[in-house]
Write the structure tokens for this entry.
Amino acid sequence: MKKAIKLFFIMLKIGLFTFGGGYAMIALLENEFVSKRNWMSDGEFAEMVAIAESTPGPIAINAATYIGYRQKGVFGAVLSTIAVCIPSFAVIYVISLFFNEFLKIAWVAAAFRGIQAGVVVLISLAGIKMFIKMKKSLFNVLVAAATFICMIMFSLFAVDFSSVFYILISAVSGLLIFLVKRMRERKKRSENNDIS
Amino acid sequence: MIYLKLFLTFLKIGAVSFGGGYGMISLIREEVLAAGWLPEKELVDFIAVSESTPGPVAVNMATFIGSSQAGMTGALTATAGVVLPSFIIILLIAALVKKIAEYAGVKAVLGAVTPAVTGLITATAAILFLSCVTGLRTVGDRATCDWKALIITAIILLVAAVYRKIRKKSFPPALLLLISGGLGIALYL
């Protein structure tokens, strides 16, 4: 029980101090669970990061659920997921109560017109960074370019096409290419076997 | 029933958002505009708030939109919706298939999703840029040019680029938003 309470407060702290997305949080988690307390090994931690990054959903939530489960089972998973959400939930809930009033102040409204431009820059930088990091295979570049162009065109001509479809289509084509490749390899292998 | 709609909408967003907070912005934007929950500019304002407060952007957005539509209960249902898919998926992986990320088939699917998300994020940025600077949402809207927004964009791009060159790491988002807010006061007030 003592460990559960500790887990709860560590996650609460991490939820409170992670600004700027999930990656900042990975360093905090490493510090708390590997360096300071030795609750996880380096290998286990790396495995957790790989899983948190490659599954859908916010990395912070994925990491909290995984670590919680490893420490205290399903109860630990529920506990740490709730704990990591509480700070943002409380802060945002309070902000949401006053946000519209706040925006009515002249200088705040002016600031937010500038901030809108800043947000556009932030999103562009995130996209560009992701593109630079992406492996530039023919498939990847084609999918990225096609998604980019289609989404802008559909938006300009008010065609209703959800982002979900781009993700599903690329996932299915990735799987199909993988299956075709594997079938070819198998065929080749069995042909080679026939000759020998 | 607004609670159910909030819950299901954010459940969908939580289930298909790969690649961190920015990956879900395109979907959140579509859903929020389609439901008429917030106008575009307010949504962008709120992306800024989500970026500069602690916690995952997705959770922040869900809490805010839920609260703005249906108070505390709305905030709770939307947040529960966006968290639940990750929670269930991770629990299944942790309990049953720890090595799932190593299967070749799973790798192929995840690898294929990344470029699509890259396209989604860059396209969302372009769409937001068009609508914030020129007021152009769909073909046929009369385009105007907000040159002040263009100046702000140019200045922060420059600052971010210089920072990157000197410090060799990306510009902190909160600082970037602070500067653009200052420029907004200087130019629009």
